[in-house]
Write a structure and sequence with these properties.
With 418 residues, the chain is an alpha/beta fold. Helices cover 37% and strands 24% of the residues. The strands form 4 sheets. Strands 8-9-10-11-12-13-14-15 form an 8-stranded mixed beta barrel. It has a 5-stranded mixed sheet with strand order 4-1-3-2-5, with helices on both faces. It has a two-stranded antiparallel sheet with strand order 6-18. The protein starts with 12 loop residues before the first strand and ends with a helix. Bound molecules: ligand C2E and manganese (II) ion (2 copies). The site of one manganese (II) ion has 4 residues, from β12.
């Protein structure tokens, strides 16, 4: 028989655990049918595992060759039976744990706990023992005990929402613009519950609209921080030209070392803020942590001065690069922006959901407001807002606009649009 794998090389055995919600109420006959068809399909494919059902949710453990497990999981995600499918674990193992080709379906609601656990053990291959520190087994047992509901959550249904913008709300800054070294684009950070723009983030652009990186590329490391600091006056000037930004605040980005390396950086910023008709209370400073902070004491002194004048502080890109728990333990900002890498695909990703829920709980203990960055899809937004986040930034709502304020795509309940 044709084999994908050279002789003697066996494919890696992969494991996958997911949770999903049954799209419709299922009868006993439905469950029998589901079990039988899963068994037939998986027997052909060489996939073993166990399938649990608690009356509304499924939790399945799948094991088999990597490509096959991936295909079976794609079938699950596309099936009419499952929705809100969330990946809980993707892993590899040296040997199979379950004996059953196909799926033994355990109906949790219909049987007491002890019976479920003994049935789980009964489904194992002879001689296989599941240690209590086995992640897959812990997940399955937590599901069987209903414990997953303590720390996990189902998102809101994205189909309930549509997104609409009012093109008339676009604002262009009048020409000519001042600088030949850099200019700024503005991207709204929106409060979708209140339906207002909480702040506008000023993102650096080159003279012809190039990326922030392109502005810094030509500079030597010595010029880097001074340029970063001085560029901010063009962001303040943009706001001034537009005749202000209503009740929204202005968020600016600064490398931490721009506050440390440039003498009197704080005075310079405060002076520029005042010169362009803004007040420090209207400004949020986002600390972008691309570089490690040396001289933390000097950095902290600068932050204290800024706070004392009323400037708000945000940790940017939280969860990426250097901006992590260590920084948060040393200084607590007014806002914490969760990095796009963590937000991406969150509605279907168990590990990311667990991380974001922990961040939310940590921030609520500390009184810190969370912003979710890089929100691109209604599914991501609806999960995040159901989890308790109010502030969002991302292409779903608006892309950054050069020298202006773009129109925002606001979520509108579908019922209201009929
Ligand atoms: P950032 O501060 O995290 O800014 C958000 C970046 O994510 C922006 O990229 C924005 O265009 C992009 N973005 C926003 N929503 C989405 C989305 O839904 N999907 C995707 N894929 N991207 C999204 P941009 O303008 O290229 O800026 C990149 C980074 O450059 C900024 O990341 C910030 O770290 C840095 N930067 C921008 N302006 C300045 C500045 O004046 N000074 C310094 N030091 N850094 C700056
Ligand atoms: Mn930023
Ligand atoms: Mn960011």
């Amino acid at each position: 028989m044709f084999s994908l794998f050279p002789e003697g090389v066996s494919p890696m055995l992969s494991n996958l655990v997911y949770r999903s919600r049954a799209r419709v109420d299922l009868t006993h006959d439905d469950l029998v049918h589901i079990e039988r068809s899963a068994r037939e399909r998986n027997e052909d494919l060489g996939v073993t595992g166990v399938l649990l059902f608690d009356g509304s949710y499924f939790c399945q453990f799948l094991e088999g060759p990597e490509a096959v497990v991936r295909d079976v999981y794609a079938l699950v995600r596309n099936s009419r039976l499952h929705h809100r499918v969330v990946t809980l674990l993707e892993d590899y193992a040296p040997r199979r744990r379950f004996a059953d080709w196909g799926m033994r379906l355990l109906n949790i609601r219909a049987s007491p706990q002890e019976q479920i656990v003994s049935a789980l053990h009964g489904a194992l291959k002879p001689g296989v023992d599941l240690p209590c520190d086995d992640r897959a087994f812990r997940l399955i047992r937590a599901f069987a005990a209903g414990r997953w509901r303590d720390h996990a959550m189902d998102g809101d249904d994205p189909a309930r929402w549509t997104f609409r913008a009012d093109p008339a709300s676009v604002i262009h800054a009048p020409l000519p613009l001042a600088s030949d070294t850099c200019q700024f684009a503005l991207q709204p950070i929106v409060d979708t519950t209140a339906g207002r723009i909480s702040s506008l983030e000023a993102l650096m652009r080159g003279p012809t609209g190039g990326s922030p990186q392109s502005c810094f590329e030509a500079l030597s490391p010595e010029q880097y921080h001074l340029f970063d600091l001085e560029a901010k006056c063009h962001a303040f000037e943009l706001v001034e030209r537009m005749g202000g930004i209503g009740k929204s605040k202005l968020s600016i980005n600064l490398l931490p070392m721009s506050l440390v390396r440039v003498p009197d950086a704080v005075d310079y910023l405060l002076d520029q803020i005042a010169r362009h008709g803004l007040t420090p209370e209207r400004v949020i400073l986002e600390i972008t942590e691309e570089e490690a902070i040396s001289h933390f004491d000097l950095f902290q002194t600068a932050l204290k001065q800024l706070r004392a004048h009323g400037v708000s502080l945000a940790i940017d890109d939280f969860g990426a690069g250097f901006a992590g728990l260590s920084l948060l333990s040393r200084f607590q900002p007014d806002k914490l922006k969760i990095d796009r890498q963590i937000v991406q695909g969150i509605h279907a990703d168990g590990p990311r959901q667990a991380i974001v829920r922990a961040i939310i709980s940590c921030c609520s203990a500390l009184g810190i407001t969370i912003v979710a960055e890089g929100v691109e899809t209604p599914e991501e937004w609806s999960w995040l807002q159901a989890a308790g986040i109010d502030l969002f930034q991302g292409f779903l709502f608006a892309r950054p606009m050069l020298n202006g304020i773009p129109a925002v795509n606001w979520p509108v309940p579908v019922a209201e649009t009929r």
